[in-house]
Amino acid sequence: xxxxxxxxxxxxxxxxxxxxxxxxxxxxxxxxxxxxxxxxxxxxxxxxxxxxxxxxxxxxxxxxxxxxxxxxxxxxxxxxxxxxxxxxxxxxxxxxxxxxxxxxxxxxxxxxxxxxxxxxxxxxxxxxxxxxxxxxxxxxxxxxxxxxxxxxxxxxxxxxxxxxxxxxxxxxxxxxxxxxxxxxxxxxxxxxxxxxxxxxxxxxxxxxxxxxxxxxxxxxxxxxxxxxxxxxxxxxxxxxxxxxxxxxxxxxxxxxxxxxxxxxxxxxxxxxxxxxxxxxxxxxxxxxxxxxxxxxxxxxxxxxxxxxxxxxxxxxxxxxxxxxxxxxxxxxxxxxxxxxxxxxxxxxxxxxxxxxxxxxxxxxxxxxxxxxxxxxxxxxxxxxxxxxxxxxx
Length: 393
Prior knowledge:
By secondary structure, the protein is α/β, with parallel strands linked by helices.
């Protein structure tokens, strides 16, 4: 998160709130202010006990995290619930790129938002305003990530009980970022004609399958899959057996996973195995709004790109758990029937769902880049003209 939480701490202090920042590794402590930092060097299983003892010294009433699926966060959430202490979770925006998420109790599939169409149909539909078009900075994200990993690696001896939720080597991450840069240039040239081919020659003749980051907590905690590769095979097998022979399947790689994973060899093997060679495409860095505009339907595990599919009013099948997997918005039947289903999302229901989600969970800001995100507004705005820029990945 770079300096985001230290800025949040400063903002809270300026509002006469006492703040302590818990540091689990040297990357955390690099960004935390000395006067607010508390260093936890123990194990996950002892963290709840540590929180209990800490609460005796600092009787805090709120715990704030980024995400809610990391081991320490899971323990903190359990303990907070048992003590009636508020647990707030930040997350990347459900509607990007102009928003970040803040929810009480959990985010994504742990969100407190009801999964009930009747509830949203009864909600008011207030006027939506234009958000400030803050621009997230990929350079800032990469720079802070490298600094965080470097600090964490070189200071790891101070936090021997810490286990990161993914690789914690700055050298590995550096290789992945450089590989991502090389691949982006290569894919830009290799697939320079792919978007026009798909959107013109295959217009309304293909299904779009969204790929997520290989170690996404959404995959690990909110899906039946152990690996994204299992999802890929499930989709190809079902497509081969149940989709019309004139239709195609397009897999879109996640741009943040470009330097970590490549599924081309796997997809080629699976298309041969299931006899659909020539009908399955694998693309990188193509415009998501353009792909959504021309697709017949969308399949995802539980990516927030599913919300973009609903913005484009496309049939959507969710393979995991998602806060938007609601009857009337998504196909509730099995994947095998999705390919032939006569289904479309309820646009009026989605309008009410999206409006409610924006007002209850979204802040018009970005984590990495210039935005006045700490001046949290009382109203969270959105307007239709910016819809096509949402979730451009």
